[in-house]
Task: inverse folding
């Protein structure tokens, strides 16, 4: 089987799998019809998994580097072109490993930031709601300067 035939077969199989997925409920899975619901716990778990993957890849991904470099140097000094090729393969591996490590760090950091930022937004909104609720019950008397200018009493004694 040629590559094109194999590729066409794989695409057809993937299309059949996608076609067999049931259509989502048009009302969505939330009361307001949203089709994406994200919980902080889920974000935390994904961020933690990305952090653990970064930790593991940092050490395990570099495990073969000393041996690869030594073999490439030895083969190159013996006049084998394989030494140069092995050195380039090792450099390529290290480059791709760094890309993957950066991606894991970015995912982990972004999710941590998103959770903290969302928490801060929630606290700010809650504070605004409390202030709005308090001001409904607060009556500030008007001054002689006019009914639109509220009277703010002066503090007695030193202000700390």
Result:
């Amino acid at each position: 089987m040629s590559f094109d035939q194999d590729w066409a077969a794989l695409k057809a199989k993937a299309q059949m799998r996608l076609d067999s997925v049931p259509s989502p409920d048009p009302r969505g899975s939330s009361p307001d019809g949203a089709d994406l619901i994200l919980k902080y716990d889920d974000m935390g778990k994904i961020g933690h998994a990305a952090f653990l993957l970064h930790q593991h890849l940092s050490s395990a991904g570099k495990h073969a580097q000393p041996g690869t470099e030594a073999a490439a140097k030895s083969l190159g000094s013996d006049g084998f072109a394989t030494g140069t090729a092995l050195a380039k393969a090792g450099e390529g591996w290290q480059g791709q490993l760094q890309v993957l490590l950066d991606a894991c760090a970015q995912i982990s950091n972004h999710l941590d930031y998103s959770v903290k930022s969302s928490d801060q937004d929630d606290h700010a909104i809650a504070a605004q709601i409390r202030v709005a609720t308090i001001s409904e019950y607060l009556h500030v008397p008007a001054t002689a300067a006019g009914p639109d200018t509220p009277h703010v009493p002066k503090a007695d004694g030193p202000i700390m």
